[in-house]
Design a protein that fits this description.
This is Nucleotide-binding protein. Pfam families: CAP12-PCTIR_TIR. The protein is α/β, with parallel strands linked by helices. It has a single domain, classed as Rossmann fold, CATH 3.40.50. 32% of the residues lie in helices and 14% in strands. The strands form 2 sheets. A 3-stranded parallel beta sheet has the order 1-4-5, with helices on both faces. It is globular and about 50 Å long. The two termini are 14 Å apart.
Length: 132
């Protein structure tokens, strides 16, 4: 869905799970595909977990996604990473306080992502995105 939004605006999204593993580790895969100017990380409730101090399980993003978020924040800087959060997914504790965007069903996340891309210095033409 995010890639379908970005492609008409002449962005070329790299989706990690669609890239060849080439026998490497997750971090090597990130490094091999990290020559980018901006990263969008999707925090979706694909796992559940809890702190040992709590009893109730909470929806969480997969640990590889949390690693990807941290990697790209370190590699590109926070201003070049947009985390889109779907549902009531628990945020990584070290990420609390950093602004993220809600990935809603109404599509307002598209304008929020476009705003972040523009603020990061990218040309954004929403006419191309919404002309389909």
């Amino acid at each position: 869905m995010v890639a379908r939004f970005l492609r008409p605006m002449d962005f070329d999204p790299i989706i990690p799970h669609e890239q060849a593993n080439q026998g490497g580790t997750v971090i090597e895969k990130f490094e091999a595909n990290s020559d980018v100017a901006f990263a969008v990380v999707l925090l979706t409730p694909d796992d559940v977990g809890r702190s040992i101090k709590k009893e109730k399980l909470k929806p969480r993003a997969r640990q590889t996604v949390v690693l990807e978020l941290g990697y790209f924040i370190g590699h590109l800087g926070r201003d070049k990473v947009c985390a889109l959060r779907r549902g009531d997914v628990e945020l990584p504790s070290d990420y609390v306080g950093v602004v993220w965007e809600k990935m809603d069903d109404g599509g307002s996340w598209k304008l929020a992502l476009a705003r972040e891309l523009k603020a990061a210095g990218h040309e954004v033409d929403l006419n191309k995105a919404f002309s389909l």
